[in-house]
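Renewal narrative, Specific Aim 1. Our central claim is that a sequence can be written position by position from structural information alone. The example that follows is taken directly from our test logs and has not been curated for this report. It begins with the structure tokens describing the chain, in the order in which they were read.
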């Protein structure tokens, strides 16, 4: 019988999201569960964003603004760019998909890092597009020279998350500048800055300041992480109007709901809330990092809201033992001794540290 789907789709497995709190409660009869598996903000969104979403609920019998004009306009004004340089997405994940769908055919080729955002290989395979996963260096930092070397004449898109999920590492500004100049001009470089707001090191590069270095550059940001609105599904891409216009042609007309659009507009206006969330993350991340040092083989410096640790033993078993303690963290495919732990509230961080100490004892 003829295969119903292509071999590349046949080989895929459904995305393994971080285990949900209710799921663990149901499976093991545990209450008081701490979830540190999906890099969600423990602070949540600005109260002003929630109020805006609530107000918009009275209009849900109407379709939202299909062009997302007010949302894109708010983003454009906030970033000091043109509204025709912005495309909004159902999370930045949708923009990644739209980019591959818009620009790639099975004759093209895509380059990305390994490990990096787990959806990259999925999206590329789903579109039947050959891809090259370029291993990170010994410090789990993207190997930019190797990524440039992986570019072929038919390479259409290069996906680079900076900071990188799941490592928490980043490529510093001088290296990224050199890279953006070196990648051949026919390649669309996608700079995925999902954790941009959390990165505080002086040499962490803001992709928006590097747009002059190459024509084909798209920068992705999201409201899911530091803005604390993961369930509302709002992300966006910034690039040259010509590329953005092509992406809009494939975008579903009502891809971001009305309450979500309103919440994002209000969230942008409350930078004080964002700064508070980022400051708290910084403090708790440092505490988590320090606590992991004596427990792990290696802990990786992070510019995000999670910390990656090589536990030096079977991570699946550790993950399972932590579930019994009511703490959900993230084991990682391809990294059998590693755990990724999201930064939570002070109490959540303490719970995670104490649970780890207990199961390792
Ligand atoms: C979380 C994440 C995204 C996508 O998040 P959305 O909720 O779809 O905006 C994209 N890239 C990286 C690296 C991420 O970690």
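The sequence written for that structure reads:
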């Amino acid at each position: 019988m003829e295969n119903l789907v292509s071999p590349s789709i046949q080989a895929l497995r459904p995305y393994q999201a971080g285990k949900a709190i209710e799921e663990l409660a149901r499976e093991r009869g545990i209450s008081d569960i701490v979830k540190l598996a999906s890099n969600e903000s423990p602070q949540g969104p600005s109260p002003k964003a929630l109020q805006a979403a609530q107000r918009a609920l009275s209009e849900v019998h109407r379709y939202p603004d299909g062009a997302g004009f007010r949302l894109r306009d708010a983003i454009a004004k906030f970033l000091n760019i043109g509204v025709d340089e912005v495309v909004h997405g159902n999370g930045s994940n949708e923009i990644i998909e739209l980019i591959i769908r818009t620009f790639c055919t099975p004759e093209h080729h895509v380059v990305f890092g390994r490990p990096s955002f787990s959806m990259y290989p999925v999206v590329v395979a789903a579109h039947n597009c050959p891809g090259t996963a370029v291993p990170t260096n010994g410090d789990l930092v993207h190997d930019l020279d190797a990524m440039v070397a992986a570019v072929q004449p038919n390479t259409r898109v290069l996906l680079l998350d900076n900071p990188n999920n799941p490592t928490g590492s980043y490529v510093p500004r001088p290296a990224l500048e050199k890279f953006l100049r070196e990648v051949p001009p026919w390649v669309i470089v996608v700079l995925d800055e999902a954790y941009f707001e959390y990165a505080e090191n002086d040499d962490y590069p803001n992709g928006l300041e590097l747009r002059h270095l190459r024509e084909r550059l798209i920068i992705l940001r999201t409201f899911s992480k530091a803005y604390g609105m993961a369930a509302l599904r709002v992300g966006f891409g910034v690039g040259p109007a010509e590329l953005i216009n092509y992406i809009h042609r494939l975008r579903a007309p009502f891809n971001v709901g009305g309450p979500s659009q309103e919440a994002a507009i209000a969230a942008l206006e409350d930078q004080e809330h964002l700064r508070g969330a980022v400051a708290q993350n910084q403090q708790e991340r440092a505490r988590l990092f320090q606590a992991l040092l004596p427990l792990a083989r290696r802990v990786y410096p992070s510019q995000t809201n999670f910390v990656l640790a090589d536990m030096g033993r079977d991570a699946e078993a550790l993950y399972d033992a932590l579930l019994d303690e009511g703490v959900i963290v993230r084991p990682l495919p391809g990294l059998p001794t590693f755990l990724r732990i999201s930064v939570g509230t002070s109490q959540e961080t303490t719970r995670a540290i104490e649970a780890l100490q207990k199961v390792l004892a």
